[in-house]
Each structure stands twice: as structure tokens, then as C-alpha cells.
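User: What would this chain look like folded?
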Amino acid sequence: MAMSIVTFRIDDATKDALDALARRMDRDRSYLLNEAVAAYLEAQRWQLAHIENGAAEAAAGRFASGSEVAAFLARWRR
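Assistant: Here's the prediction, encoded as C-alpha cells.
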């Protein structure tokens, strides 16, 4: 896999925490940053896909009925 260098600014406290975690995990800073970026991208893709799916459902007129919403909320209140 081809790799690129990316530079960005980070506050000193965050960098120190990142370095401390990297030492405890016996990894380097780049490994942790790559893992963090990959997790962020996965979460954002998942969220956007669900938002787009919901918007498409709404555009097609497919909504939950009032009783379906009430039943859903009742399950969460337990």
C-alpha cells in the first residue's frame, strides 16, 4: 500500500497523551494516528449512509406511523 505524508497541527497535551499511549502499547505515533483516522472514516461513512438512507425513505414517503413511534419509545423507557 502506498503511503503519503500528511502534516497537521495538534496541541501539545494531545500529542503528549498520544505519545504516552503509543509507548504503553509498544506502537509508534503513526500507527495510532492511522488507526484513529481509519476508525473516524468508518464511523462517518456509516453515519452518512444511514442519513442518506433515511432521507431517501422520507423522500419516498415511507415514515413510521404514530403507533410505531410510540411502541419504539415504550421499549426504550423500560
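The radius of gyration is 21 Å. If you want, I can go into more detail on any region.
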